């Protein structure tokens, strides 16, 4: 956890860092404490490493930190400036990924998220990008609104088990878009399959940080060895990953035989591939490419949507004044004689700020998904060797006191001009990645989240749970920081805003569920 070497080591690459355990000056840099054999492997905490990285950044007065272990090198970018300078402005040199050996052991098919930079990655991006361009995602707004309505009705009708409604909503949207498949109800097998995969990836640790990734030969060690807990984890969850990769794809192929609908990703891409084969034309992608790309849509879309909706409920509960202000905006724009549609969203700026503040308060992937350098680079006098893994510490960027006043306070107004009661602070950047690795589904995901949030504000009151004495029982929620940063399901009080709102909701749900999307 030190600033990078100001120039390549005069002792040969990595030789200076082999002195870990001592305090030595090499190329004018003070080496940090570490362990002779393990380097920084046991120094970096397994959970909430993003907070420790932020702390070290302040301690060493550098927004770029360097680490090594088992011959692997990685840097952590603690400031938005460093992330923009390297991952955006020099994006072509930081477009690679490290090899994710642990995910290979877990059985992940080649997916856009994990692929190394090269022709295979560029192919997957070409396959995925057209259906999710900003100009084409409008075809899904009816689906997104339908699921938002069903979600809010589910929250009200079974408020004690409201997280079940969250899971159903997030799976239903992306399963339909990716495969054309429906979630028939809260007991749908697809919800359980998606939940298993979300657990598998969410608790796997920061991508690229396991002993398997840092020292790939350990994948061949016996899994029963005490130090190989990550290998045991990978083998335990392998079946869940293989199931979510294969089962919905097979179901979608079966569905296509009688009901082809090109709006849905798998239907569209498989139809193109099949028609080309019938004409004797070779396509640049095969069925395995389509399968991997579709799995990316389902896994990433489900996990992001569900975890963010959980956060929205938490922050609305904790900040009733924000909830009331956002509800007033929805009432003013939409009225109380109907419920919000996607056409209303551009007229709900404060609602959008609530979502942005949720992004800032708790980035779901606080260390992002790591990049890797394609070639050697020098940044502000610091040498970054080829093949170095690069983690953008999004959490540190979003909690930088030099950028955000009271960064641990939930305050959507912070982005407004000072004349409107705000602090003119920048909107959060980095939650969907950086540079050439930015998430291509970000606009689709944001549309889903905004219509869910607007529908909640129109139909539901969220408050602290009540104790036996009828008084609000405030509490500190529990968090999981094993890979992603997610809030553990928590109790809350959910009521319909009014009898009229509940009636409108029931009528709308009845209408949309009678239609086939």
TrEMBL record:
Transmembrane segments: none annotated. It comes from the Eukaryota. Keywords: Heme, Iron, Metal-binding, Monooxygenase, Oxidoreductase. Pfam families: p450. The keyword Membrane does not apply. SUPFAM superfamilies: Cytochrome P450 (SSF48264). Its cofactor is heme. One of its GO terms (molecular function) is heme binding. Signal peptide: none annotated. The keyword Oxidoreductase applies. Heme binds at residue 439. Belongs to the cytochrome P450 family. PANTHER family: CYTOCHROME P450, P450, PUTATIVE (EUROFUNG)-RELATED-RELATED. This is Cytochrome P450 1A2. It comes from Echria macrotheca.
């Amino acid at each position: 956890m030190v600033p990078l070497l100001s120039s390549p080591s005069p002792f040969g690459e990595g030789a200076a860092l082999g002195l870990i355990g001592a305090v030595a000056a090499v190329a004018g840099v003070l080496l940090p404490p570490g362990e002779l054999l393990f380097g920084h492997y046991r120094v970096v905490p397994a959970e909430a490493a993003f907070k420790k990285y932020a702390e070290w950044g302040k301690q060493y007065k550098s927004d770029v930190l360097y680490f090594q272990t088992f011959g692997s090198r990685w840097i952590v970018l603690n400031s938005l400036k460093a992330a923009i300078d390297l991952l955006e402005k020099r994006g072509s040199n930081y477009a690679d990924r490290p090899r994710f050996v642990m995910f290979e052991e877990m059985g992940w098919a080649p997916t856009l998220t994990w692929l190394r930079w090269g022709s295979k990655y560029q192919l997957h991006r070409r396959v995925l990008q057209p259906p999710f361009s900003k100009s084409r995602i409008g075809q899904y707004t009816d689906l997104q609104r339908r699921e938002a309505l069903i979600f809010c009705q589910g929250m009200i009708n079974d408020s004690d088990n409201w997280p079940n409604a969250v899971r159903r909503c997030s799976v239903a949207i992306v399963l339909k878009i990716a495969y054309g498949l429906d979630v028939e109800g809260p007991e749908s097998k697809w919800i359980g399959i998606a939940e298993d995969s979300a657990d598998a990836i969410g608790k796997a640790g920061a991508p690229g940080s396991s002993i398997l990734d840092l020292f790939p030969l350990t994948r061949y060690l016996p899994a029963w060895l005490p130090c190989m807990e990550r290998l045991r984890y990978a083998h335990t969850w392998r079946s869940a990953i293989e199931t979510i990769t294969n089962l919905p794809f097979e179901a979608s192929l079966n569905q296509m035989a009688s009901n082809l609908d090109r709006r849905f990703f798998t239907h569209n891409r498989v139809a193109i591939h099949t028609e080309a084969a019938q004409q004797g034309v070779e396509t640049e992608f095969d069925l395995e490419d389509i399968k991997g790309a579709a799995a990316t849509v389902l896994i990433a879309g489900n996990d992001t949507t569900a975890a963010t909706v959980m956060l929205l409920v938490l922050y609305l509960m904790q900040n009733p004044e924000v909830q009331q202000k956002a509800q007033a905006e929805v009432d003013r724009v939409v009225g109380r004689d109907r419920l919000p549609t996607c056409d209303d969203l551009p007229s709900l700026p404060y609602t959008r700020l609530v979502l942005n503040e949720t992004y800032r308060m708790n980035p779901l992937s606080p260390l992002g998904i790591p990049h890797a350098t394609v070639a050697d680079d020098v940044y502000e006098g610091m040498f970054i060797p080829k093949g170095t893994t690069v983690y953008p510490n999004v959490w540190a960027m979003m909690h930088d006191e030099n950028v955000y006043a009271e960064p641990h306070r939930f305050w959507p107004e912070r982005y407004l001009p000072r004349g409107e009661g705000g602090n003119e602070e920048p909107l959060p950047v980095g939650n969907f990645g950086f540079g050439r690795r930015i998430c291509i589904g970000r606009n689709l995901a944001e549309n889903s989240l905004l219509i869910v949030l607007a529908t909640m504000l129109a139909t539901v009151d969220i408050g602290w749970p009540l104790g036996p004495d009828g008084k609000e029982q405030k509490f500190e929620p529990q968090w999981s920081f094993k890979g992603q940063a997610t809030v553990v399901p928590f109790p809350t009080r959910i009521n319909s805003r009014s009898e009229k709102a509940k009636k409108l909701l029931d009528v709308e749900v009845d209408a949309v569920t009678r239609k086939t999307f």
